[in-house]
């Protein structure tokens, strides 16, 4: 055991890796506070808490950040119709700054000078965590064991981690590890690495966990009315049974349920990581996929054509920044502000059908649509704005 | 009958409108040459030819431009992943410059000073036809009866057209007109106006003609291998039965068949027209939808990340120009060149599943992919380019 | 004399053309109200007023809009570092929407249904006037005599205008017309057409009226301190004599004086007009040129790098819109808002030297510069924003 | 002396820093080959060669790369009207990849596995050198002593370097070091750091070395005719004395002379470095400044408006990439290709006057200008292209 050092807040997942990191940090002399965000993933939070305490964490924070995740992170992405490289809905990238915010808040509350995470040195998440933490608290120091030779040389493979776990009383998973890695939250689940790394290999049928297989999903669609105000959904109604949800979190969860039931939101892509390599990822983003289509539709219906074009350029940039971990950057805040400004009149109801992996737009209506068969764009705009009150003399 | 004027080449469709225009142009003293492009629409071309001659056309040109349409117009759109306002695949917009090219060629061959078309004064097609014709032949004069008071005041509604038709021996359609307007070609069919004009109204189930209803489409997917070279498909194989197509036109027709069978390619959108109003359109673009997804995938797999970003911006501009009728503009030619340049190494095979209205990417492979787990972007790029031959001394 | 029609507000300049238009409009049966904006041009406003009344104007409005021109139109251009095609500072384009606003206000006050102007059918100003008027008041009707055959066929040349003037008691200019046309306001003067039309011809030395010839301008520079807040100048001090100006209009006039004295602001360019042709223009923009350089400098000094890049793209679009007359469009208002947002922390003082046609930046300082030799961008940004209060424990 | 290692090619400048690095590398056991590019800087190359050999370099390469620098690096920047952050002409950034190319070629020829440079860890040049070298030869290893603790801790200040120099027989400069750092080449000289670091401090009058002071420069302008083909200058004539230059290098040198004589090309700016900090720099770019203005003019005169807009966006990106050291990246090569494509018809002669720090455009002419008073853009474009041969029947 090294001499006492300082306090570190560890982004703890409850799994083998971060459990070993917890013990290893203690070995290095740190006092460890574990933080586990409930951001919508499938997890036994009570068990994780007990486990972390048993492994020597001085304190364990488990916080439900789901509502905040939806309102402060997913909604701006909905505003932007955010897609990275035309396809990835940014489910992991949006979760990182939400978690980073809490890591920093806890570090500040606890007077900890260090934050540690279990992300590897080849992925995007290390960058997202660290840029977030450093931006929010420039004096913090981030410990990334998977980038430290004293750690990764000690644990070259899973076998060494297992041995270390057994030696230190870390509970070892009884089920065999899936031959790929996963990251789940309220918005999505990702699968990558392992047997998926070869981009030619098909995803096994039993890989998917968040959506049903479209080949066996129901033969009858669900139909929804999704009402938007200022570019975000404020009400969802299932027209087949009248079920209605109004709050951000509740309606998002409901859309997840419906989309999941009908197999909506699966994509298999190759993307360009921040660190410069291409990577194959498979994603399920159920509610996000419905909202992407519905928002695109109500936006096109209510937004001026030329504003839309400018906003589209801003959104491309926004998506790239979010993917690369720059959520807390001045440029991302600037873009968020501008994009939100463009959404002021994005309001109305979109009717959608959800069926066999697809979202179909059936129709839309809006209290202040720019849709008008007779008038041209500029005149119509100013009629709606009533900028100049005119004598309607003809 | 007015005094003899000059020769006009009429973009003839065989329908009521352009038949009346043909007769009306003769009334105005013009010698009329009818041109009907076979661009993949459902049409009895022989009957149309006979009809035009019977109505007094001096000559009738019927030309099959399908192969040219695919290779010279659809392929550049595939290069660009062209979408107007994130959703419309530009099926009509791509066909117009193809037709305009032939109108001009015939006018030049026949020594005609005029070209006439039946597009209305509220839509995009008048602009696309006319910009195309004027660009290719600045000395031509376009006659657009639906913008001429002497024509539209004489035919304020369908009833007046019908009366005129009966009076002049123009065969009147026996089936009632669909309560919307359609435009079909090899790539797509569009439905708009009439009962669809209210964006809230759902499309009737019997509207669709080019794709099956996903609720009744087959319960077994088709799986395809689509091979690309320089960013365009060069071979399509159905892995379930080994059926293979290689030429541009044949493989496109086959993809239309497969997509149609599985209900792929339906969208219902509101778009911003060039002339400044919003318009609701419903589209079926079967093969185009499969190719959009497949090309997006092989491109992401083989193109450098930063080149992709620049190319994406160029494609947005390209799509807008095509929509607005600027195919034959210097900026569109510049963009086509730059985008084609970006496709030089876009090659490989994408495996897709087509099922219930959806296109699923299953995997991809490429002879020169940039996909590499160990090396970063720049190094990898130059390894592939072999720009500098190095002594591989480590 | 035609039968009485309605009231028209005429954008009156006091010159031969609009004087003839005034009389001609009366001939057509209109009641004419003349509006002459004092937007900083050299003009005998009293004489112009008397002349218009003598010619039969029912009423003459002469309004000093200089302050409004600076604050509402020139300042947004300073925010944007607005340049059209890298060189033109938009002096005329910014004045048009300012004038249009007052034309519409007077029309509304007077119950006039028509607005008339003397811009030709080949230039940008017709578009700028008309888009502005229609946007602000969709029900207005614009009369553009120079586009009406009954007017331009009657006045094919200057000789016919002179004859008409003599016949109708319109005072004819005694000095010969300059062999080019000019447009002047507080921000600039433009020269074009006539002998300048050939882009190879040099501008005559005696053409320039708003700036001294650099070959004979003073041999001693003036040095200024220009203080900015929120991206616009709030104080100008001449460090050689302590002269200080603080209000927008006064400091702008003073910068015009200094720049004019040193021959600053002359450019000779070929630009692309909205209507599709290239046009040669010579401009003098004295104060605007100093402010362009000073604002560029303080902005670079205080704005985040990545925000600057995004803002630069928005500014390019803004400049193009302003040039093309879209000031009162939704997209221009959106851009103005976003650009203004980017200027919130653009504050500080720039030291400049003005000498022999050049503006030299000598140095700059700012209360909240991002300039910092040790810290990187993101950390520095958040230090300034103090978004998260941290225990400064190291 | 450490054990023999391997061969390193050192980017040698002849100054104190790289002389010490040369000796230090030998101390570390490397065989050192010195490379000194003659890229237009003021330098006694013979003396530098002798010095390097005397200090123990196994071999010294001195290569004149001036012509290559102009043709392969400056010309693409002229094509692009390349400016970083609206003001910096990229003089240093363009030189680095030219030097890097030769470093790699020599390393490959000599079988060296290492390249070393004397750039600091805070600037842009380290990035530019290293990205260039790694891109051209992924297997090379770069040694950057100023980023290595064993080096920078040994030489915390200039005093320690001087002591080391005296101890190892390295000739010590007799003149005191300027209180700022400089980087010179054929295109420009930069001044930064030291007393210039405070952005408020004025540049001393005696700082400038490459251009005359405009206050004392000649009272009579020089007038030049600059002829362009495919967007680059091919002939420069001084109309006052008939002096003419035609080759790339010769005309560039001549433009440097003329610009220098009239004090053209000085700027004082604050820029954003790649590594994230703001930095004040003073630059003299004489010939580059003349060419910037002249090319801007001939381009505006001959290029289609909409192509120009697209090309402008590409150029912004190009400038940013060059500044950040990505010359040899796939995206930079893509942009260079596209920009060059846009220059195909950029040809003609620009008349400029050079006087007291300013470049004035006096006029321009071109064999294939798009300038035309009567025809609109698209028609004119196709007239020039003669895409479709038409019967000119009206």
Automatic annotation (TrEMBL), chains A, B, C, D:
Which molecular function GO terms apply here? Answer: argininosuccinate synthase activity; ATP binding
Localization in the cell:
Cytoplasm, Cytosol
Q: In which pathway does it act?
A: Nitrogen metabolism; urea cycle; (N(omega)-L-arginino)succinate from L-aspartate and L-citrulline: step 1/1; Amino-acid biosynthesis; L-arginine biosynthesis; L-arginine from L-ornithine and carbamoyl phosphate: step 2/3
One of the protein's GO biological processes: L-arginine biosynthetic process
**Which key words are in the record?**
Amino-acid biosynthesis, Arginine biosynthesis, ATP-binding, Cytoplasm, Ligase, Nucleotide-binding, Phosphoprotein, Urea cycle
Give EC number(s), comma-separated: 6.3.4.5
Q: Where is the Arginosuccinate synthase C-terminal domain?
A: 180-385
User: Which superkingdom is the protein from?
Assistant: Eukaryota
Give me the reactions it catalyses: L-citrulline + L-aspartate + ATP = 2-(N(omega)-L-arginino)succinate + AMP + diphosphate + H(+)
Cross-referenced SUPFAM superfamilies:
Adenine nucleotide alpha hydrolases-like (SSF52402), Argininosuccinate synthetase, C-terminal domain (SSF69864)
**Its GO CC terms?**
cytosol
Q: Which residues form the Arginosuccinate synthase-like N-terminal domain?
A: 8-171
Q: Which Pfam families match?
A: Arginosuc_syn_C, Arginosuc_synth
Record CDD domains = ASS
Q: PANTHER family, per this entry?
A: ARGININOSUCCINATE SYNTHASE
Instruction: Quote the protein name from its UniProt record.
Output: Argininosuccinate synthase
What organism is this sequence from? Answer: Gallus gallus
């Amino acid at each position: 055991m090294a001499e006492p050092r300082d306090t570190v807040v560890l982004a703890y997942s409850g799994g083998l890796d971060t459990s070993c990191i917890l013990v290893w940090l203690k070995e290095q002399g740190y006092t460890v506070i574990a933080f586990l965000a409930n951001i919508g993933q499938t997890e036994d939070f009570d068990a994780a808490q007990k486990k972390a305490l048993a492994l020597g964490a001085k304190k364990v924070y488990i916080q439900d950040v789901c509502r905040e995740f939806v309102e402060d992170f997913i909604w701006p992405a909905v505003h932007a119709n955010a897609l990275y490289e035309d396809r990835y809905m940014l489910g992991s990238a949006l979760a990182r700054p939400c978690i980073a915010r809490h890591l920093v808040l806890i570090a500040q509350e606890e007077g900890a000078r260090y934050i540690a995470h279990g992300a590897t040195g080849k992925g995007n998440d290390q960058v997202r965590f660290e840029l977030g933490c450093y931006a929010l608290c420039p004096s913090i120091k981030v410990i990334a064991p998977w980038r430290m030779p004293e750690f990764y040389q000690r644990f070259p493979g899973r076998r060494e981690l297992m041995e270390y776990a057994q030696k230190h009383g870390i509970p070892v998973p009884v089920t065999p590890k899936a031959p790929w890695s996963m990251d789940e939250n309220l918005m999505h689940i990702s699968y990558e690495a392992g047997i998926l790394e070869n981009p030619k290999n098909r995803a096994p049928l039993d890989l998917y966990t968040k959506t049903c297989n479209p080949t066996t999903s129901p033969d009858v669609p669900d139909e929804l009315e999704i009402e938007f105000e200022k570019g975000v959904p404020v009400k969802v109604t299932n027209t087949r049974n009248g079920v209605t949800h109004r709050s951000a979190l509740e309606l998002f969860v409901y859309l997840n349920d419906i989309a999941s039931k009908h197999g909506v939101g699966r994509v298999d892509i190759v993307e360009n990581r921040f660190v410069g390599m291409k990577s194959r990822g498979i994603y399920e983003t159920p509610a996000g996929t419905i909202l992407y289509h519905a928002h695109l539709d109500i936006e096109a219906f209510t937004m001026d054509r030329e504003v839309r074009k400018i906003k589209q350029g801003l959104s491309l940039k926004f998506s790239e920044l979010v993917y690369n971990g720059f959520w807390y950057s001045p440029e991302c805040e600037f873009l968020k502000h501008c994009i939100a400004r463009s959404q002021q009149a994005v309001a109305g109801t979109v009717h959608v059908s959800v069926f066999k992996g697809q979202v179909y737009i059936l129709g839309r209506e809006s209290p202040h649509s720019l849709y008008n068969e007779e008038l041209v764009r500029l005149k119509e705009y100013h009629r709606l704005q009533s900028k100049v009150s005119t004598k309607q003399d003809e």
